[in-house]
Design a protein that fits this description.
The complex is a heterodimer of chains A (389) and B (360).
Chain A lengths: L8 H16 L1 E6 L7 E4 L7 H15 L6 H34 L4 E4 L1 H20 L5 H19 L7 H8 L1 H35 L4 H13 L2 H18 L1 H5 L7 H25 L3 H9 L4 H35 L8 H10 L2 H29 L6
Antiparallel strand pairs in A: 1-2, 1-3
Helix pairs in contact in A: 1-2, 1-4, 2-3, 3-4, 3-5, 6-15, 7-11, 7-13, 8-11, 9-11, 11-13, 12-13, 13-15, 14-15
Chain B lengths: L1 E10 L2 E11 L4 E5 L6 H8 L7 E6 L2 E2 L5 H6 L1 E5 L10 H5 L1 H5 L4 H14 L4 H4 L9 H13 L5 E5 L7 H18 L2 E6 L2 H7 L2 E6 L2 E6 L1 H6 L3 H8 L3 H6 L4 H4 L5 E3 L4 H10 L2 E5 L5 E6 H4 L11 E2 L2 H4 L7 H11 L3 E5 L5 E6 H6 L1
Parallel strand pairs in B: 3-8, 3-9, 6-7, 7-8, 11-12
Antiparallel strand pairs in B: 1-2, 1-4, 4-5, 9-10, 12-13, 13-14, 15-16
Helix pairs in contact in B: 5-7
The chains are: A mainly alpha (389), B alpha/beta (360).
Chain lengths: 389, 360
């Protein structure tokens, strides 16, 4: 007889860990006012009775991950259950917050606790595993992820989470939030754009002329290992001195703090992945292909555009992807030197010991990074030349 | 005609090619051979200006090659190399069509030409056109490389050990095919190799180089019968007689072969064997199945079917395009005194006899 149980290691451990976490630590934190010390509220103590559904679904998930049956179906089902649970966790927290706010008034704050975060994290791990193990037919998983994101967005817009502390922080800063979000995105796009304009020719140069290789990568590696805070700091006096010496810089809007130093530092950090991957990409082109192309009468630019770039493009795009994700994270630090962006809320939150304000800055930054990463991944996958797949 | 006059190449103080002069007539298959480092590849690459000359003049059709734009010149000359260098992101058809596209041919003309060339190199266009280089075997990739070099129908072909990196059996098959193609196309070919057998088999003229200098420039026959000095003698090796066989085509030495269908009774075989020492046994499509001699008749019932010695035509037979050397090697391998000659489907066309090889 075939055994009834067969444990799928990753999703099973994640599900068990998640179940233990959501039951044993605080699901939400209750605070009588915004900066008071909080009390942990366990899942089973949350109001609105939805917790029962959460626990039942979660137990079902654990059992599912240990049962033996059609592997693909089990994996997809685990993914589906995780998505549902993720949405349920949000609804449970939102509902609890709504009930508490009704009882205690708007002074009281309900914020998300460790049980929520660890639980959500383990569910995302199971979803990632579903993506990894479902093999070739990924369309159901893509659909699932899109549906989950759509459901979360719908709940957000429809006001289900409005009474959660993080959303209360958002409501107080709605306009600022969106303007900083745009600033953040603009900083990322312009710095990565600049690093492309500089980095791709630089990578090509390092590949074509070997004597440029060492100086280029020595400089970029040094830059990359400089702590971002230090680099932002160093740029302030340098730019300040420059504006004193060349007044036209001031007219152009350059100053020691603000956008200019941020843009310079962010571009510098974005350069290494772009240059490195451009170099590597061009190095993967078989020298025999170049020799043959030349021998057949291709000009240097024909070789570049018809042979080298198409072959190198996937690796270069991956460098751009790394640069983008890295720049999204680093831009948060740029708020320290007055460049704006989501870091504004993070540093305000740090100053006020208001965790939810920190979250308001951090969450969109993380989501932006995850989104850009998967978006670029999709682009790279679709653009990969068929012969190289 | 390609003509080199006192061509010299110096790399960082080291002379790779030293005052080299020779002519390659139109339609000639000129093989440049020599030990590694003798400057043969350098010489080839100077002809299409991948390497500039340090001294001397190279002319094609009487015109100095430096008067052309390098790219223009190269588009007029086919070029195939040992490492093939197919473009991995392009299909086989796109790879073959590279030079025609550079020359601005019309799409349909490129497609027709590509299909024609793939067919000529025994690659079914229906199967191979849409394949990518990484889906090809070494031999297939090499064929595509040759097709690509021929794409724009250049009158001159430069080939740098094009069959060097493939296994001996595939190499021999490719050499046979290429010899057939050249018979048809009559290109002017400059071909570099370090394999003397390949040179003797394919060349109409051989140039032997040593340390950048020309040692001997002559027909394969003359080089074998009249080697210029010890270097050439040693280079050709001790099996000169055997090497000569690789220049002789099986088709020219083929004799009629006595054969019998396998459906015939033993009696009629016995009748035949009065006149012939042995018989080839073929099936109803004429495919060789084996052979039969008097020993096979002894003790057999006169009415019984044929009890023959079986032979696989794929391993034992040769084609009209094979060389006598291959025929001899098949005979030795199979322990037979004559080798059947078959067509592509394995049907018996004739035979090559040991005594004819010895007299050739």
């Amino acid at each position: 007889m075939r055994p009834l149980f067969s444990i799928e290691k990753v999703p099973f451990s994640a599900a068990v860990l998640g179940l233990v976490a959501i039951l044993s630590t605080g699901f939400v934190t209750f605070r009588p006012n915004r900066i008071a010390i909080g009390d942990a509220v366990h899942l089973v103590r949350t109001r609105g009775e939805l917790w029962i559904v959460v626990v039942l679904f979660w137990i079902a998930l654990v059992i599912l991950c240990s049962l033996r049956f059609n592997r693909r179906r089990r994996i997809l089902l685990a993914g589906l259950l995780s998505s549902i649970l993720l949405i349920l966790l949000m609804i449970t927290a939102g509902k609890h917050a709504a009930i508490i706010t009704e009882e205690y008034g708007t002074i009281a704050r309900v914020s998300l606790g460790p049980a929520f975060w660890i639980g959500a994290f383990t569910l995302i791990i199971i979803l990632t595993d579903t993506w990894q193990s479902c093999g070739k037919g990924k369309s159901p998983v893509v659909l699932l992820v899109l549906a989950t994101a759509a459901a979360a967005a719908f709940l957000l817009i429809s006001g289900r989470f409005d009474m959660l502390s993080i959303m209360r922080e958002f409501a107080n800063r709605r306009e600022r939030f969106f303007s900083e979000l745009i600033t953040h995105a603009a900083l990322v796009v312009s710095s990565v754009g600049l690093s492309l304009a500089l980095g791709i020719p630089l990578g090509l140069l390092a590949h074509r002329k070997k004597r440029f290789y060492n100086p280029t990568f020595f400089t970029l590696n040094t830059l990359q290992t400089t702590p971002s805070l230090a680099l932002f700091g160093i740029l302030i006096p340098i730019l300040a001195a420059a504006t004193l010496k060349f007044p036209f810089l001031t007219e152009m809007g350059v100053s020691g703090i603000g956008t200019a130093p941020a843009l310079i530092a962010l571009t510098a950090y974005s350069l290494l992945p772009v240059v490195r991957n451009t170099y590597t990409g061009f190095s993967t082109v078989d020298p025999a292909a170049i020799e043959a192309g030349k021998g057949m009468g291709m000009t240097t630019s024909q070789l570049l555009f018809r042979v080298e770039i198409p072959i190198a493009s996937a690796v270069i795009l991956n460098g751009i992807r790394v640069s983008l994700v890295q720049a999204i994270g680093l831009t948060a630090v740029a708020a320290l030197i007055g460049a704006g962006g989501m870091g504004v809320f993070i540093f305000q939150g740090l100053g006020q010991a208001a965790n939810d304000l920190i979250m308001l800055g951090a969450m969109p930054t993380i989501l932006m990074a995850v989104f850009v990463d998967s978006f670029m991944g999709g682009i790279i996958f679709m653009m990969r030349p068929k012969g190289l797949r | 005609m390609i003509s080199l006059q006192q061509v010299t190449k110096v790399f960082a103080g080291r002379t790779a090619v030293d005052g080299l002069s020779f002519d390659v007539e139109d339609g000639e298959f000129c093989v440049i051979i020599g030990p590694s480092g003798c400057g043969k590849s350098t010489t080839l690459r100077m002809i299409n200006r991948l390497i500039p000359v340090s001294g001397g003049v190279i002319t094609i059709g009487g015109k100095d090659i430096t008067t052309y734009r390098a790219e223009e010149l190269r588009r007029q000359i086919g070029y195939a190399i040992q490492s093939v260098g197919l473009f991995p992101h392009m299909t086989v058809a796109q790879n073959v069509g590279v030079v025609p596209r550079l020359l601005g041919w019309h799409q349909t003309r490129i497609r027709d030409r590509t299909g024609h060339l793939l067919e000529m190199l025994n690659l079914d266009p229906g199967i191979y056109s849409a394949k990518y280089p990484r889906q090809l075997s070494g031999g297939e990739a090499q064929r595509v490389g040759v097709a690509r070099a021929l794409a724009a129908d250049p009158s001159i072909l430069l080939m740098d050990e094009p069959f060097g990196a493939i296994d001996p059996i595939t190499r021999e098959a490719l050499q046979t095919e290429f010899a057939r193609i050249q018979k048809e196309l009559r290109k002017t070919i400059v071909f570099v190799t370090h394999d003397i057998d390949e040179a003797i088999r394919l060349a109409t003229r051989i140039i032997i180089l040593r340390e950048g200098k020309l040692v001997q420039h002559d027909t394969p026959e003359n080089i074998m019968t009249n080697p210029a000095g010890r270097f050439v003698t040693e280079f050709i090796g001790t099996d000169r007689a055997l090497k000569r066989l690789s220049r002789l085509g099986a088709g020219d030495y083929m004799k009629k072969a006595p054969s019998i269908a396998d459906s015939e009774p033993l009696q009629s075989a016995a009748r035949f064997l009065l006149e012939h020492p042995y018989l080839w046994v073929v099936d109803r499509n004429g495919r060789v199945l084996g052979w039969l001699d008097k020993n096979d008749l002894e003790g057999a019932e006169p009415t019984a079917g044929l009890a023959m010695s079986c032979l696989d035509h794929r391993t034992a037979a040769v084609t009209t395009e094979s060389t006598l050397k291959e025929a001899l090697s098949r005979m030795v391998q199979q322990g037979i005194r004559s080798a059947p000659v078959v067509d592509r489907k394995g049907a018996l066309l004739g035979e090559i006899r040991m005594e004819d090889i010895l007299e050739a």
